[in-house]
Amino acid sequence: MIIGTAGHIDHGKTTLIHALTGVDTDRLPEEKRRGITIELGFAYLPSSDGRVLGFVDVPGHEKFVSTMTAGASGIEQAVLVIAADDGIMPQTREHLGILSFMAVKGLTIALTKIDRVEPELITARCLEIQAWLAQTAYAKAAIFPVAAMTGSGIPALRQHLLALPESITTAASQGVRFAFDRCFILTGQGVTVSGLLHTGQLQVGDLLKLSPLGLTVRIRSIHAQNRAVQTTSAGSRCGLVLVGVEKDQIERGQWLLANHLPAPCERFDALLTLAQDTAHRWREGLQVMVHHGAARCPARLILLEDTAWQPGTSGLVQCNLSEPLPIFWHDRIVLRDMSGQHTLAGGLVLDVMPPLRGRKKPERQAILQALTAAQPEQALLQLLRLATLPLSLQAWALQMNYPLAHLLAELQAQTPDIQIMDQHGQAWCLLPELAVQLHEQLQAHLDYFHQQQADEPGISCERLRRMALPNASPDLFSCLVEYWLQQGILVQTGSFLHAPGHVLSLTLTEQQLWEQLLPILQAGRFDPPWVRELAEQLQQPESLIRQVLCKQTRRGEVHQIVHDLFYAPIAIQALAAIVCAQAQPLLNVVNFRNQIGIGRKRAIQILEFFDRVGLTRRIVGEGAQGKRRDERLLRNPQLFSNN
Ligand SMILES: Nc1nc2c(ncn2[C@@H]2O[C@H](COP(=O)(O)OP(=O)(O)OP(=O)(O)O)[C@@H](O)[C@H]2O)c(=O)[nH]1
Ligand SMILES: [Mg+2]
Predict the structure, then answer these.
(1) Is residue 28 domain-shared with residue 154, that is, in the same domain?
(2) Does the keyword section mention Protein biosynthesis (predicted)?
(3) Is 140 found in the same domain as 53?
């Protein structure tokens, strides 16, 4: 377990860590000369049961609050150091605020330098500290009066820290997120970074993504507490020697991420809690410095709520970062002013893919409120209750950094009637109420369409989407169509979608004529007669022949190649099979014509028909030796295979 420190300058953090562990964490010459901590320091305390406590020493100087913030990121427990002679000072307050913004769970108070004050003052300080803590989230924090120089009180504090319980998390099953605060060249080894593994498990040889750069790096070796190890898991601090990156490409504040995790984001919505003592005026467009892990980035704020924005209150905002950061759902951020003098607020990240439109609408605020739920499945369940469209579980699993299977299992355990539509691993999910509502919506639009266009056999998928559910993405809609087809709510004939009861029927005369036409077209195979020839052969008006064939085209019974030229399905299937066999993956027009044995002009007309319906796509351009290229690429080989 890692324990952070906090506290005003010179209150004795470094001396206390030395007394607890025997390690002097102020190792830089400048730190020695000035007698203050500038960079983060680390020390380890092994316990008799084999566990190791890691301490992060942070600077107390007001100029280095951002370094302290980096040190407080991702830790569970902290020791707030308060010198008995000084008492509560400005950075005591500011650091405690940062610990609570970072959601550090447990706090212990070390009242140091008690050798410098009278015993009455120690009691008075304890009372003073208790009264102050009572107004914060750490009212129950234990206070240990100590003198680091003499060792008085140190054993009791050490024992208390070693006995702190480690919380049980699911972090090990999540994707790797490793934040580093130091990078250097380790002699004889190479580029090395050291930091905290927030989630996941690391193993020598793993390939990770360096974020936000996007480079892939390999872990050559892992070093924890001065020895090489093969693996390490969430919650531990370690050093990693990397392959595949130069020293000048890495800097403190970057992350190493599991390869499947999403790209960094530039915009996110968050719930802010304003610092107790901030006098800042909160307004739309306010520029602030966002601290995330060991990274800092300027951002512009959009206030999503009409609240008072008073000290200590909370409100929803959108942060627009000047550079992308690898932020995830429920990450903690700290907001400071641009000059780096004041801590303004802390934030809980709610959505790293906020919609561009309607960001201040009440519906959106309800969604963000739902996303404040502590557990991912609780948040998703509430989102499902608010949803007007199926939810992409895949997208949420990524921004929450939870395994999809884990989320799915939790959701199904809580709501057994949840419906999952799985297409290409997308896993869209919805509650039965929404399924009914979407079905009604679909039916109303289909009924209206069939009423208005009684002569049409149905509607294309894209047109139906724009009509019935314009807010659904084409991917989601095609998944819904699949689902409705399976349920028999919707029927597909050729490329047309229609209501189950809808049939475009022929009159008796038309039906009789069709029964004569089909065998002629089938016999014509790759070169069937034109409408004019059919009219002559059957002694019928051309207009009637055309009318029947057009109607049957719409019903998917025959295919129209060009005006007045129709092919029987059997011929089209045979032609499509030739196309599929020849396209490797490109199809050459000349070869196609030679094989079917008809004129070049007709061969092209047939291929243009296949382009139109989506079997092939035409590719024109400059070929080898300056020859003009005219070829086809196969797009959807299944199109005519099961008709
Ligand atoms: N008498 C006495 N002096 C102490 C005690 N703890 C620390 N000091 C002295 O206080 C001074 C500051 O101690 P540090 O441990 O460097 O304080 P710090 O909190 O780490 O300071 P920064 O890192 O700069 O914020 C040093 O001169 C220490 O010797 C203590 O318990 N008793
Ligand atoms: Mg120090």
Answers:
(1) yes
(2) yes
(3) yes
- Say yes or no: 100 and 180 in one domain: no
Residue 165 has pLDDT above 80, yes or no: yes
Give yes or no for residue 643 having a pLDDT over 50. no
The residue segments making up the domain with residue 282 are 265-365
Maximum C-alpha span of the chain = 122
SS3 call for 116: helix
Average pLDDT score over residue span 576-582: 93
pLDDT band of residue 642 (cuts 50, 70, 90) is low
422-434 pLDDT, tens digit each: 777 778 999 999 9
Which residues, by Cβ under 5 Å, contact ligand 2, an ion? Answer: 13-14, 37
Q: Does residue 641 belong to any structural domain of this protein? A: no
User: In this predicted structure, what is the pLDDT of residue 458?
Assistant: 86
**Which of 403, 430, 457 corresponds to the end of one domain?**
430
Q: What is the pTM of this model?
A: 0.79
Query: Long-range contacts for 137-143 (Cβ within 8 Å, ≥24 apart)?
Result: 137/100, 138/96, 138/99, 138/100, 138/107, 141/80, 141/106, 141/107, 141/108, 141/109, 142/108, 142/109, 143/109, 143/111
| Same domain for 157 and 21 | yes
Residue 10 CA to ligand 1 center (angstroms) comes to 5
Residues 518 and 626 in one domain: yes
What confidence score (pLDDT) does residue 117 get?
A: 93
What CATH number is associated with residue 401?
Answer: 1.10.10.10
- CA 194–ligand 2 middle distance (angstroms): 20
